[in-house]
């Protein structure tokens, strides 16, 4: 098996991420990989927002405010968890789907294309020697959070990608049988 196949078969997420994050030059390469996501009619139905450094704290306040609005009874522990969540990695990339009306490309295909872009970012970051994890949570579906991030009415959050350097070794991967998922028809 060649190295690329081995790499693809062993990709895995890391919930614990520390400095360093990809450099600006590496991020440029990583985003170039995202721009090769499969994309019906070349609509480019995605864009990416980076959040790093102290902006992660500002984003934490956005998530906390969103939680407060969704659930005014949320307790301090929950608010603190929301507030601190962006600090779990040195860099966040918000993957945004930009939905437009198209006679042949329904919204689901545009969302899937954005999801492919998110996966490409994870793979490219790992190829550069970093690690990441795709997270969502209720904040990802909260229109107030989207507005605070500058999203328009036609835009949605597909992923909060947390990127950085893996803290510790990678976990043992489950051994799955392709036969359980693949059949011929
Ligand atoms: C759309 C989507 C949303 C996800 N949201 C979360 C999340 O909010 N929190 C979380 O811990 N994992 C979330 N995950 C799962 C992780 O990204 C990861 O895939 C999972 O921990 C399994 O690890 P692995 O990718 O190494 O197999 C999400 C995955 C997807 C595809």
Name a few traits of the molecule:
about 180 residues, alpha+beta, 6 helices, about 40% helix, binds flavin mononucleotide
Give the secondary structure arrangement, pairings included.
Layout: H1 3-10, E1 17-18, H2 24-34, E2 46-52, H3 55-70, H4 76-84, E3 91-98, H5 107-127, E4 131-135, H6 143-148, E5 155-166
Antiparallel strand pairs: 1-5, 2-3, 3-5, 4-5
Helix pairs in contact: 2-5, 3-4
The chain binds flavin mononucleotide (FMN).
Residues 12-13, 133-137 line the site of flavin mononucleotide.
Quick synopsis:
It contains six helices and five strands, in the order αβαβααβαβαβ. With 185 residues, it is of the alpha+beta class. Residues 12-13, 133-137 line the site of flavin mononucleotide.
Rg from Cα: 18 Å
Note the run of SSEs as H and E.
HEHEHHEHEHE
The total strand number stands at 5
Helical content class: 25-40%
- The CATH topology name of the domain at 17-49 and 89-165 reads NADH Oxidase
General description of the model:
By secondary structure, the chain is of the alpha+beta class. It has a domain at 17-49 and 89-165: NADH Oxidase (3-Layer(aba) Sandwich). The chain has six helices and five strands, in the order αβαβααβαβαβ. Helix 2 (24-34) runs antiparallel to helix 5 (107-127) and helix 3 (55-70) runs antiparallel to helix 4. Bound molecules: flavin mononucleotide (FMN). Residues 12-13, 133-137 line the site of flavin mononucleotide.
